[in-house]
Amino acid sequence: MDVGLKHMLFVSLALFFTGVYGFLTRRNLITMLMAAELMLNSVNLNFIAFNKYVWPGQLDGVFFTLFIIAIAAAEAAVAIAIIINLYRSFSSIDVEDADTLKY
């Protein structure tokens, strides 16, 4: 069975909407961060799929993917540092508790 562009786009679509669902329905900041990373990986899959099937001689999709991976790693490091700081200050990382927090 040959994996074509439609198959890759379907998997990417499923990953993206799984990430959107996880981001909108979860209350924990860490699971929201994981859902955002899932959406970024879906975009990476789109870049690679279009690079392979639409513009096979160029490496633009690969470079964009590498750039997104680097940005996602930095974003995850900063977000985890913020989450740890919030947990130390308020003993909760629940998003619904954010409106009751007193600074």
Topology (elements, then pairings):
Blueprint: H1 5-25, H2 29-53, H3 60-90
Question: How do you describe this structure in short?
Answer:
The chain has 103 residues and is mostly helical. The protein has helices at residues 5-25, 29-53, 60-90. It is built from three helices and no strands.
Explain what you see.
- With 103 residues, this protein is mainly alpha-helical.
- The protein has one domain (5-100): Orthogonal Bundle (Helix Hairpins).
- It is 75% helix and 0% strand.
- It is built from three helices and no strands.
- It has helices spanning 5-25, 29-53, 60-90.
- α1 packs antiparallel against α2 (29-53).
- The radius of gyration is 17 Å and the shape is elongated.
- The N and C termini lie far apart (58 Å).
- The model has no long low-confidence stretch (mean pLDDT 89).
What's the story with the biggest beta sheet?
A: none
- The end-to-end span amounts to 58 Å
Uncertain spans: none
Beta strands, count: 0
Number of helices: 3
Q: Approximately how much beta-strand content do the residues carry?
A: under 5%
